[in-house]
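User: ok so my PI wants both of these folded by tonight, can you help

Assistant: No problem, let's get them done. Here's the first:
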Amino acid sequence: MFTHNDESAQCRGNRAAVVYGFVRMPPMTNSLRSATLTLLILIILSWPAPSHPQPAQTAPQTEGAQQFADLGDLRLRSGGVIRDFRLGYRTFGKLNAEKSNAILWPSWLGGKSQDLVQFIGPTKVVDISRYFVILVDAIGDGVTTSPSNSKSQPLMKFPEFTIRDMVESEHRLATEILHLSHLRAVMGLSMGGMQTFEWGIAYPDFMDLLIPMVGSPQSTSYDKLLWTAQIDAIELDPAWNHGNPTGPMDRSLGLVEEIGSMNLTSPAYRVAETKPDGVNALLTEIRNSARGDGGNACDRIRQRQAIMALDIPAELGVATLEQAAPKVHAKLLVIVSPEDHLVNPEPAMKFASAAGATLVKLDSPCGHLSPGCISVGPTVARFLADPASVHGETLQDAAKR
């Protein structure tokens, strides 16, 4: 959910500081793309790391280079098909002899695997001297086959897809292209966290660990109101032309970013960081950063529809999250912010409780960006190495102490 298309905002101001791996979140001017980059930048900190090697590709590749898995037709759970499907991905590190150290990390809403590259390395959240890391471009991000780049199903001719469809494409990448039968972990932020929950119930024995951060196993009515408002903003733009875009969509995409910026952090954060006389400058920055055409708008709509359709209990044919949670067999670390206004944290907390998972709460007015205001990088690294070393707790934003 962050990129210049979406969940990122530009950050500036007086709250940024780095002290021995603890990163403070700077004040934001909210275009949703830099916000995600900021979230991830702030999540990533230094810590020690081990090692191990052996490439997963059949042909030599430059580490971290954009790659594509040609998967032919991708059959969707709705019965539809995405034709000539290509899944974008990047790999880092080396697969060990036992093939037991692979970690899959899919992108967030509007995000791309490129946005995650700077956060993978020997001193980052996922240490590539120890793990073989697969960064995946989720369906609809404009890199993987999407409304904006499909030749056979362009724009709104592109079928609706779900979070589960994203997972199915990623599973095919892991098994058919990378020839993996097991993963050490699946992890992700925001929509990446949603995919992580889906992985846990779709392929419960395929991984050892699951780490959804500010994600959800089910969209609430509040979530659906937010995503619907953003879709409505796009469709009300005269340039949308009933799904046959006629030109730049800057006007509506600016409004989408404004709506998103209200939800990205808490009201308390925004009031503290932007004075009343600074609102016009904030709005100008949001609108200037929101540029795009009809293809970009269609990508946004389809990914939001996927999020709105997210309902793991219904998918399993059960009534509640409490009934769905036992389907997960992997060890589960759930990280939420109780003040998250972009992805409601209640479903994730219920799921964690029912699954007996480790739940880490981030007590911060930064809301959806709390993993940047309260660094969770070291917690994630410890869990990857030794799940028993991480316990449920509430981490507090230093600014609130």
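One down. Here's the second:
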Amino acid sequence: MIAARNFPWRTDRMPAMSTTDPASSPGGRPDNRPADALRPVRIETGVLKFAEGSALISLGDTRVLVAASVENRVPPFKKESGEGWLTAEYSMLPRATHHRTTREVSQGKPSGRTAEIQRLIGRSLRAVIDLKALPERTLTFDCDVLQADGGTRTAAITGAYVAAVLALGHLLLSREISAWPIRDQIAAVSVGLVRGIPLLDLEFVEDQVAEVDMNVVATAGGSLIEIQGTGEKRSFRREEMDALVDLAFKGIAELAAAQDAALASTLEEVADVLSRDRRRTAAPKSEKDLWGRPGRP
């Protein structure tokens, strides 16, 4: 089983703790989910023929396609630094939403919202990928929202991790890189307060009425990378923030399990290669250790 393997780049997992009693669900969730439940999660890999890594992630009716591309060049500010670079782009199809939205390319530049999300995705992935292990290479994530029903930026981050493992696994298995660049596993989820009740994984209609809206990016081991929290309709107390973050951790643990299931074969191959390399590069024993010390039988 994949969970039984010891991957050297992974930290211990945080427990999948429940922070909200399902009985406290407001009962008004569109799909009658408990307050602490994710929407149904599905991650498909290898959905694009030419990309080094690709994933299609679905959370309920939200669907995001992520492609990871590797280029043998870096931007000018990274030249001769000994490091690679990682960046992301994000866009929505015109009919990803309830009403058609104009393509941003026709406006000449991305909107402020799009630019913010692109930076968030890039920051999140750079927090767990060692750019020194990708010398003179750029890893670009193209995140395209096929259908938007809330949580598109967090779905993009969760899917981008999967695409990253596939792309970097391809480089490692083909011996284009010698070290595994991924230091930790990440996922992201939205949480919020609706009628004073903490809810996990908000869909669009919940997001529209939420008093507090929060996006949380964290590692599978429970380390925070970024929190974006806003009092949309009122201020919120420290204990309410803590409850939302705990709820997000529960969802991220479940998303990490879905990532592992989608990546099981790739992770096994990567672990085997790294294990063989460690055995191959073991330090040779000294001649004294091989033949024994003088004067001994």
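Strands lie at 41-45, 53-59, 62-71, 85-92, 138-147, 186-194, 197-200, 212-219, 224-231. Helices lie at 112-126, 152-173, 204-209, 238-280, 287-291. Good luck tonight!
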